[in-house]
Amino acid sequence: MVYFLSFLVSQTKLNLILIFFWVLFSIFEFLRLFSLVKLPFENLWKKLLKDDEKKKLTDSWFYLAGLILAIFFLKIEFFRLLVLILSFSDPLAFLIGNYLGKIKLYKNKTLEGSLVFFAASVIISYNFLGLNWHTLFLPLVLTLVEIFFRRDNFWIPVIGVFYFNFYFF
Questions:
Q1: How does DSSP classify residue 102?
Q2: How far is 146 from 150, CA to CA, in rounded Å?
Q3: Residue 151: predicted pLDDT
Q4: Rounded CA gap, 159 and 85, in Å?
Q5: CA atoms within 13 A on the CB side of 101
Q6: Are 85 and 53 in contact, with CB atoms under 8 Å apart?
Q7: What's the pLDDT band for 163 if we cut at 50, 70, 90?
Q8: pTM (2 decimals)?
Q9: What is the count of structural domains for the chain?
Q10: Domain containing residue 89
Q11: Backbone angles phi, psi at 126, to 5 degrees
């Protein structure tokens, strides 16, 4: 959705939209964590929370925070690349690693999930960057981030910002 929205509105409007939703989500998270009021549709969203998210900020909050940082510091083309990697590679890695993964690498990360993340990221990078060393090196860096960082939905955009600002500016 964020990817398609980046084509429909200006970068300034997209910045404001992301900040608006992040603020709303932050209020929701604050109310959820401190149980100040009964939140609507609790039976639906409570089932989606991971065990470690029930008393902490959710990965969705970190995802939005990472995207906000990325959009402020990157050209829109690089932002779109990171959004696609987050939108496709990360869920594919989770699904394959969770259901087919046998070889544990680090904590709950599996070799199979990491290989899928890398392969999907290479395909996405190739479509954006063409065939050059960045097509393999960026996915390698982001795969290592995905393996070793707990909040990879936040750290993938942040490391992507550092990567693109170091190599392309």
A1: -
A2: 8
A3: 87
A4: 13
A5: 22
A6: no
A7: very high
A8: 0.86
A9: 1
A10: 2-168
A11: -60, -40
Please say whether the beta carbons of 97 and 87 come within 8 A: no
* Least reliable range by pLDDT among 37-46, 55-64, 140-149, 151-160: 37-46
Tell me how many degrees the CA angle 58-65-133 measures, rounded to the nearest 5: 110
Which of 5, 55, 66, 6 is CA-nearest to residue 29?
Answer: 55
Gap between the Cα atoms of 122 and 61, Å rounded = 26
Of 68, 89, 81, nearest to 167 (Cα)? 81
β partners of residue 104: 110
Alpha carbons 33 and 29: distance in angstroms, whole number: 6
Instruction: Dump pLDDT digits (tens) for 96-141.
Output: 988 987 888 888 888 999 999 999 999 999 999 888 888 899 999 9
Token pair 């779109």 is found at 80
SS3 at position 105: strand
Q: How far apart are CA 84 and CA 101, in angstroms?
A: 23
Neighbours of 90 (CB within 10 A): 22
Answer yes or no: are the C-beta atoms of 57 and 29 closer than 8 Å.
yes
Parallel, antiparallel or unpaired: strands 109-110 and 104-106: antiparallel
SS3 19: helix
- Which pair of tokens denotes residue 105? 């690498």
